[in-house]
Structure formats: C-alpha cells, structure tokens
C-alpha cells in the first residue's frame, strides 16, 4: 500500500515470505499486530526516553501514546522503543558523560531495526542533543517532540523557577537566612507537575532549538507538559512523520547551515543556555554542516534578548507559552532579517509560513527588538593565552561591572578542593578576586560537569556580594547566572593553559574585547608547563575508558571523535 517514492527500508524485513519473514512478523504478532500492518505502510519508531530515573520525562508513555495514535491516523505502523535515558538530576558524575553513549544507542537502535521514520521524545537536558545526534548519524525522516516544561512553581507567594531558585535558596540556606524546613517545602513547591525545568535552562533552550532548527512542530518549545495541547502536538507529529516518510524528507533536509544559523540567533533572542553551544557544535558535525565556535559570536552578536525568563529575567515557560511562545520571537527575528524564513520545517511549511500569524500577547514576557529585555545577548567567544581554542561567556547573565576586569586568581584544582575550602573564613578572597576551577572539562571531570558557576564564599555572601568572575573548563547549568567563563579549551587535564594558573596570578577578562588573558610572562609559563603532570585517568575499562580515549574538546562539541559524521540508513546484513 506504500505510495512512497522509494522502497521503504522496512520492506527488507516484512515483505519476505520465507523463514526470516516468519521471524520478523510472527514475533511482533505476539503483541496483537494484525497481518495487514505488514502491507507496506511506513514503520515509525517512537524513540522514548521515559524513565523513572529521568523525572522530567516521566510522562512520556502518555506522549508516546498520542504519537502512536497520530501514526495510526495517517496509516503508519508505530513501534515504540526505549533508549538510554539521561536524568540530569540523578546521574553522576554528570549526565553529559553519557550524552554520546545515548546517541550511539539511538543511532544503532534505529539502523538495526525495520524503521522508515522516527519520532524522538525528548525532554530533560541531554536527552534532546543525544537523540538528535544519534538520529542525524542515520538520517531517516525524523521529527522531534519535546515533553514540555513544568507548570510555574510558587513558594511563599513568589514564583520559583527550576534550578535558578535552587541555587539562590541553597545559598540562602548556607547563609542562614532560611530554615531547612523551608528548604524542603520549596522542593515540593517548585516541581509540582510533570515536565522539564520551566526556566529558560538547557531543556527549554533545546526545546526552542528543536523548533528553530525546524526539526519540531510549531509550538514545540513552550506548551506545558500537562497541557492537552502538548498531546495534540504529539499526535500531529505522529501523523506528519508518515507523510515525511512518503515524501522522503530526511533529517539532513532540515538540518542545514541556515537552520543552525536560525538556532544560534534564536539562542540569543531567548537568552538561552550556554550548553546549546556544545550541543549544536556536536550536532552540526554529525550532519556535516560547517559550524564553529566563532559562528556563535558573530551570528549572535547583534541579537537582543527578547524573553524575560529566569534565570536572566522574571518569568517562566508557562508565561512564555501564554505570551505566544517561540513563534512570537521568531517572527520578530524574521522581520529584522535575522531569520532564514525559507528554511524548511518538519510540518512541511517554511519557518516564515509557520510564524505568519504569530502574536505576542504579553509584551512584558516577550519584549520587542526595539525595546529588548537585554541588549546584545549572544554568546561571547573569548580568546587569549588562557583559552587559545576559545571559551564562552553569556554576557546577558553576567554583572555589567565585571565584564571588563583584572583580578587576582584564587585557584581550585578540583571540585573537591573547591568544596573543601569555599566555606573557610580564612580563604584569601574578596570581591575583586577571580575564581579559577581546573580539571572539570570533558576528560577532566570526566564529562564536563555543570560546576562552572562555583558557589561564592559565605563571607562574601554576607557582605552582599552576589557575583564574582569565575573561570573554568566546565559547563554551567542553563538555569544558572553570573559572570561565568566556561568551556575553556583546551582543558586543564590535558595540559591546557588553564592548568598553569596559580593563586595570586593576575587574570584579565575583557568581554567587549573578547579577551581572556593570564598576565604571567612566557618564561614563567614555560617553567610551569615543563613541571605539569597529567592527572591519573578516571577509568581503565568500560564506556568511560572509551569516552576518555575519544572525547573531543569543548570547541568541537565534546563528541566522540569516531561518532562525527553520518553512516546513513542502509539496511544491515541479514541475521541468519
Ligand atoms: Fe531535567 Fe532540568 S533536570 S530539565
């Protein structure tokens, strides 16, 4: 019954009338699949990251059911399958260590099975890039469906946002300004519904980018997880993927250079997470789109942040949805020539067609480009002798008075050392100091953990100091804020210049000049380089060993070097 332009790959399994055809069909029939499902209709994989260990994705069985209905509506044959799920809050040392492993799981599961198209169910931070990366290396017709953000959190009459208020309340607890009981009550008040973090953290940023890249349906970014319209979107995605298979709209037809440019400018306009940088660099390398760290600086440089959401602002994703969601942002970018309106999207229309009727209903949440929430909100890419391959900072989350500053370094060689000393009242640190954290990069942590926004010393918090310059090779939670320099490359644990900083050295940060300099003469740096010893590797077997042997640096996306690129969807050899 297929009307696809080319033979569906699932036919290599299901059209066989022999012993193997018996295997392929018969075992599926044990779950009640009738014979007519094998008549040539597109087989759609529903790639599910549901897990009780990933609370942000705990409603995905229901979303998968709506995708399934959509696939059936359109005459497809849905088959749901699980892949490694990455729970940001639970996984140690960091979910990022496993992003590439999950992408391998997705890639191999999709290619090895009789699938013609895939719907990716994504929510918690790393699940989105992991699934997109894996799918990109196969390149079937693909639609991304995000799980949606949680409802607004409220505590003691105030709106509280995921992560952002976790950080502020943990600092209040350390400073003694709230009790442990209040702390526990706030935990329940913040996370009161299904969904992912409802600030403009990494999950919300990546959900916006699924839409901006054109891989998701319009509205994907902001519909709350528990709003019935999220289920409608899932059903429409299920219907649409069947058509995409018939039309052979493979993922590389959506993930073009123009799509990435749209995504980078969107990141600036929404005040999105710094984590988007490393994820989009990795994704672009999977599909062979040339994209560099410097693209982030020049493409985002003149884009203003329009969205007044935590952590930079005041509101939450539910407000963003009520205001009009991402289409109301994209429309403004398009009107100023900052969006490729002709970029194709998953629903078969162009970006310009999708945003044609977008309306901004709450200007206090989505500002205009004439009166932006924050000016010049793109990522700044810093270079200098401290970061020869680059480092990034999100100026819109930084303190303006620290964007141009020279200060004395206070160095922590590990996260354990930071935790051991940060509460020490005798620590020599003041508001002009620059905190430097080493050995937290892709190999160093391992997994480039979100520890770059180091906690401040209590003695400075009590003085009302709320920000210091912090520099590391780590990442930062998308829900965090501050004058935080991240992703320093090369990282300290492979002997990058960050490893050579000593307490007392002067460090110069100049964001307008894009400079990050260690003010130590070259002879002294050469002596330190000669004396530097590489830390012991974190593993000598298993996945972590594979990861350590092959992970690339932050400016290359921190992917495994052998995963870069696409192997395509060619049907593997038979298994007999
Ligand atoms: Fe899952 Fe924030 S912890 S999105």
From TrEMBL:
PROSITE patterns, per database record: ILVD_EDD_1
Record InterPro entries: Dihydro-acid_dehy_C, DiOHA_6PGluconate_deHydtase_CS, ILV_EDD_C, ILV_EDD_N, IlvD/EDD_N, Sugar_Degrad_Dehydratases
Enzyme type, top EC level: lyase
Record-annotated Dihydroxy-acid/6-phosphogluconate dehydratase C-terminal domain positions: 364-558
GO molecular function, one term: dihydroxy-acid dehydratase activity
Nucleotide-binding found in the keyword field: no
Keywords, alphabetical: Iron, Iron-sulfur, Lyase, Metal-binding
Boundaries of every Dihydroxy-acid/6-phosphogluconate dehydratase N-terminal domain copy: 41-354
EC nos: 4.2.1.9
Coiled-coil segments: none
Domain of life: Bacteria
Name this protein carries in UniProt: Dihydroxy-acid dehydratase
Organism: Comamonas testosteroni
